[in-house]
Amino acid sequence: EAQVTQNPRYLITVTGKKLTVTCSQNMNHEYMSWYRQDPGLGLRQIYYSMNVEVTDKGDVPEGYKVSRKEKRNFPLILESPSPNQTSLYFCASSPGTVANNEQFFGPGTRLTVL
Amino acid sequence: GENVEQHPSTLSVQEGDSAVIKCTYSDSASNYFPWYKQELGKRPQLIIDIRSNVGEKKDQRIAVTLNKTAKHFSLHITETQPEDSAVYFCAAPHTGGFKTIFGAGTRLFVKA
């Protein structure tokens, strides 16, 4: 089944404790992206990747890191989480190397930083 | 700056009525305009999209119209049903087509 998976689905952590949210897709998509969703603000892009080893900042990259060592995986890293990073996070993938195709979203990761 | 504005933020309609949601975008080079539906507790899913070489696209009760000159596009839902109740997001590519900017979303309530 074609899908985007994320883990964990729920995470409660404390300020400053490094964490990684994994994202994997099995559709051989070049374009992958991370978003955070906050009430009233919609989906805001954190980072995107056009292909392996090619990543760039979205609108809200501060406090986040990503890597794209393999085509299927695009982990999101929070080196020192803070309470303002409490949010619902979505990973997405899309065919092509630009953002002009349908994006397929993962199930979401709800992160709480205390 | 780069942005996508979406209106209204909340829309309440009676079952069977039509609903219209509008978005404006800032990057005149944008060439792809999707609409996503997000039901409560679920992930966003594409419901319809349009490319810049056409002005309108329909899929059963859903249609999208595009005005490239004015840089706005709209989602039209006819004969609304309770299962249409959800949050709807528009989006457009920016920055050479690499970045995706979403609207803030419209919460649609369809009253039975």
Largest sheet descriptor of chain A:
7 strands, mixed
Q: Tally of extended strands of chain A?
A: 11
Structural class of chain B: mainly beta
The tally of strands of chain B reads 11
* Chain pair with largest interface: A-B, 24 and 25 residues
Please state the overall shape of chain A, judged from the principal axes of the Cα atoms. Answer: globular
Oligomer: heterodimer
Mean pLDDT of chain A: 96
Low-confidence stretches of chain A: none
| N-to-C CA distance of chain A | 36 Å
Class from helix and strand fractions of chain A: mainly beta
Largest sheet of chain B: 6 strands, mixed
Approximately what portion of the residues of chain B adopt beta-strand conformation? over 45%
Amount of helix of chain B: under 10%
- Rg of chain B, nearest Å: 13 Å
Word description of this protein:
- The complex is a heterodimer of chains A (114) and B (112).
- The model of chain A has no long low-confidence stretch (mean pLDDT 96).
- Chain A has 114 residues and is mainly β.
- Chain A is built from no helices and 11 strands.
- Chain B contains no helices and 11 strands.
- In chain B, β6 (56-59) and β7 form a beta hairpin.
- The model of chain B has no long low-confidence stretch (mean pLDDT 94).
- At the A-B interface, β5 of A face β5, β9 and β10 of B.
